[in-house]
């Protein structure tokens, strides 16, 4: 175990170990950290549904009906009615034939990419098959990268949102089985993948396309159905695999894939993170069904989130901050230097604001940033408090 200590010593010496503050209370704009009331600007509870009274009521009803655990894998004793009801609801919400749900979004990515790209061998032709290739945007989420690693196929990256580079990778691997995979909203930069163009390239080069709707579901598109609605694309046709998490705007836990019936049937018997893991809490499915219903019937949360995001991003620009390519509720401000980013976050906390810094290896070297996220439930006053604090700290740290 000596190497463990050596690594920890290295992390401590270079201030790399995360602060990991203990947070008390629900994911509201104000939380308690170390007994102090602090403004939260880092939550994924974008629409505020995690503590919406109707969602809480549904979760409680779910616990009363099913208890707290699923008590088994979906293939065995955990195939509970409420999970199937959520699958049907999310399939309808995303406009696909069917859906399958994992306990987390991480497990969904891991289990989907590895199952699709390294499938069982059921005939002699499968033993002779060439390796497939996973062509991934360089800024994709870690769970996509880990799914690609687990698939044991060829891994190729294209420059962030760069269609010329994607096309050159598609040409390079023309004769192989190809999976293009991209976040639809990028988790660290808050920008949107050009899915209309990616869908065209997918067709031209006969590739499969998978998107991760973690930060788009409930937000993008005219009625919050996500990036397919935003771009006018069809599930199962323009995009083969629509994956998402239930842990952001949907406010609970879980991960899903929506797509054609055969894709879903296949994943149920090929995705190891689905087969060999206990299904998520039944109450999570109950809460998620209600969250989807609220997104359909109460558009005010989404509208408020969009207004808040625009206000905060524009105000940061007025103060001279670089918000990189952010177009959504994820709004980073670029600091650059790691130590300054750490100092910035710590000073924010002294001012009563939680805004964590993100550094290498989570983002590129010298691109350390403070990653803010906005919620529909933030008030103008709370956002102004954040802006004033950032203005002061910028001066103190001599940031240009
Ligand atoms: C783009 C993306 N995909 C997948 C995940 C993993 O989802 P979960 O937190 O539900 O495991 C995240 C979570 O941070 C994410 O941002």
On the 0-100 scale, what is the average pLDDT?
Answer: 95
Distance between the termini: 44 Å
**Major sheet:** 7 strands, mixed
Strand proportion: 15-25%
Spell out which ligands are present: pyridoxal-5'-phosphate
**Cα shape:** globular
Features:
single chain; 400 residues; alpha/beta; Aspartate Aminotransferase, domain 1; Aspartate Aminotransferase, domain 2; 2 domains; 7-stranded mixed beta sheet; 4-stranded mixed beta sheet; 15 helices; 43% helix; globular; binds pyridoxal-5'-phosphate
Topology:
Blueprint: H1 2-13, E1 23-24, E2 30-33, E3 36-40, H2 53-66, H3 81-94, E4 98-102, H4 105-117, H5 124-127, E5 133-137, H6 142-151, E6 154-158, H7 163-172, E7 178-183, H8 195-204, E8 208-212, H9 227-231, E9 241-245, E10 255-259, H10 261-270, H11 272-275, H12 282-297, H13 300-318, E11 330-336, H14 338-350, E12 353-354, E13 357-358, E14 368-373, H15 380-396
Parallel strand pairs: 3-12, 5-6, 5-7, 7-8, 8-9
Antiparallel strand pairs: 1-2, 2-3, 4-10, 9-10, 11-14, 13-14
Helix pairs in contact: 2-12, 3-12, 4-6, 13-15
Bound molecules: pyridoxal-5'-phosphate (PLP).
Pyridoxal-5'-phosphate binds next to helix 4.
């Amino acid at each position: 175990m000596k190497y463990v200590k050596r690594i920890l010593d290295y992390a401590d010496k270079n201030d790399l170990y995360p602060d990991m503050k203990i947070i008390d209370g629900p994911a509201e704009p104000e939380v308690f950290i170390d007994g102090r009331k602090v403004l939260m600007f880092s939550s994924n509870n974008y629409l505020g549904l995690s503590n919406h009274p109707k969602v809480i009521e549904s979760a409680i009803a779910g616990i009363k009906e099913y208890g707290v655990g699923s008590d088994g894998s979906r293939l065995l004793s955990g195939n509970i009615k409420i999970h199937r009801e959520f699958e049907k609801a999310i399939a309808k919400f995303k406009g696909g034939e069917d859906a399958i749900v994992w306990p987390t979004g991480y497990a969904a990515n891991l289990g989907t990419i590895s199952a699709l790209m390294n499938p069982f061998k059921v005939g002699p032709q499968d033993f002779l098959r060439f390796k497939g290739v996973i062509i991934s945007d360089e800024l994709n989420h870690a769970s996509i990268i880990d799914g690609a690693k687990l698939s044991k196929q060829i891994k190729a990256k294209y420059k962030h949102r760069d269609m010329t580079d994607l096309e050159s990778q598609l040409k390079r691997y023309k004769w192989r089985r190809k999976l293009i995979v991209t976040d639809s909203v990028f988790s660290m930069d808050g920008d949107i993948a050009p899915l209309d163009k990616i869908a065209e390239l997918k067709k031209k080069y006969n590739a499969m396309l998978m998107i991760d709707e973690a930060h788009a579901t409930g937000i993008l598109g005219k009625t919050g159905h996500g990036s397919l609605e935003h771009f006018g694309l069809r599930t199962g046709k323009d995009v083969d695999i629509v994956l998402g998490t239930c842990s952001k705007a949907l406010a609970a836990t879980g991960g899903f894939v929506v797509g054609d019936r055969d894709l879903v049937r296949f994943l149920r018997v090929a995705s190891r993170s689905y087969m060999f893991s206990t299904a998520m809490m039944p109450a999570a499915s109950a809460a998620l069904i209600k969250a989807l219903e609220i997104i359909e019937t109460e558009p005010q949360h989404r509208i408020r989130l969009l207004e808040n995001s625009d206000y905060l991003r524009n105000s940061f620009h007025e103060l001279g901050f670089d918000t990189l390519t952010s177009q959504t509720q994820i709004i980073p401000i670029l600091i650059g230097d790691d130590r300054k980013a750490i100092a910035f976050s710590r000073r924010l906390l002294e001012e009563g604001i939680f805004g964590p810094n993100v550094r290498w290896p989570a983002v590129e070297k010298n691109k350390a940033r403070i990653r803010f996220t906005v919620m529909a439930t933030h008030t103008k006053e709370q956002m102004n408090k954040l802006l004033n604090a950032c203005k002061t700290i910028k001066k103190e740290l001599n940031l240009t």
